[in-house]
Design a protein that fits this description.
Blueprint lengths: L2 H10 L4 E4 H8 L7 E6 L3 H13 L3 E2 L7 E2 L13 E4 L5 E5 L8 H6 L2 E4 L5 E4 L2 H10 L10 H17 L7
Parallel strand pairs: 2-6
Antiparallel strand pairs: 1-2, 3-4, 5-6, 7-8
Helix pairs in contact: 1-3, 5-6
Length: 173
């Protein structure tokens, strides 16, 4: 998984997205096994087209069926319009694109409360805040390999928040 390359490409294509799921938690708190990157994109026509371009630049592949599975660069514009969630493969890792997220109703509100951060490689991204992560985790399990219940996830966040406060590390917003 080349998370930096995926996020950097999304940034270069000016895709409005929020990092969600296990990778968001991995980068912001502690190492947990995750094998894909989950991105919640703003669901506007212009942003979907930017996301299509970014996914093409990442050599991603997708299809509704095995028969239609192909590089997304071969698909006509607006292929991203028809499903709320798409799971793609790329040489840089698996990428899940969400146009809606169970438990979270408003992308813009989640953007306003998102956390601006950097990967260890120095790539900037916005990830949903812990409160939104709890709301979305309560509505859907992001990563089956993590399989965090809301209670255990709450405990992990509380422990990490206390650790951050003890270290006096400012929260980037």
């Amino acid at each position: 998984m080349n998370t930096d390359h995926v996020l950097q490409t999304m940034n270069q294509c000016q895709v409005a997205y929020l990092l969600i799921g296990g990778m968001n938690y991995l980068l912001r708190h502690q190492t947990l096994l995750t094998v894909d990157i989950d991105l919640w994109i703003a669901d506007s026509e212009a942003n979907r087209l930017r996301c299509e371009a970014a996914l093409a630049a990442l050599d991603a592949q997708w299809g509704r069926t095995d028969a239609t599975w192909e590089p997304v660069r071969n698909k006509p514009p607006h292929w991203l319009d028809h499903q709320p969630v798409l799971s793609l493969n790329s040489p840089h890792g698996a990428i899940d694109i969400f146009k809606l997220v169970p438990g979270l109703a408003d992308w813009q509100a989640s953007w306003q409360s998102s956390i601006a951060a950097e990967t260890p490689g120095g790539v900037c991204y916005h990830g949903i805040c812990d409160e939104d992560m709890l709301r979305s985790n309560g509505a859907a399990s992001w990563d089956s390999e993590c399989d965090l219940s809301s209670q255990s996830f709450s405990q992990l966040i509380a422990r990490e928040t206390a650790k951050r406060e003890r270290n006096c590390a400012p929260k980037i917003r």
